[in-house]
Amino acid sequence: MDRPLEKLPRVGAVFLLRDDGAALLQMRDDKPGLRHAAMLVPPGGHAEPGEDIEACARREFLEETEYACGELHRLCSFVDEVSGWPPYELTVFWARYDGRQKHACHEGQWLEFVRREDAAAQQSPAYLTELWDRAWREFLETKTI
Fold this sequence. Notes:
By secondary structure, this protein is α+β, with helices and mostly antiparallel strands. It contains two helices and seven strands. It has a single domain, classed as Alpha-Beta Complex (Nucleoside Triphosphate Pyrophosphohydrolase). Strand 5 and strand 6 form a beta hairpin. The chain starts with 9 loop residues before the first strand and ends with a helix.
């Protein structure tokens, strides 16, 4: 489909990372008609018309987890194309877990910190581990600065 990127729906998501490399991830509901159903994903959601994508990622993360992210670091944007679904522009951020705030699951089957080595036991979108690894590398780089 040849649609200009700016015309695609926009989604923002956040990898919240702990110092041990675990990420706060959501197991999506297993419902018909839900993209990435029953898969492990970083919390996030659709931008409102005119909403800045970083503001969207913050809002969606807070709504779904009750956790208010500190500084967000933009990781990348790409067109998420899944067979049978309309494409959308996905912008992924990462943030450092502050070790203090609590979190709660307000969307999906469950929400918890998942260790990278345990992620393979769950179904996930093809991009999950590559982006998680990239976010972790950036996380480590900012720790040493």
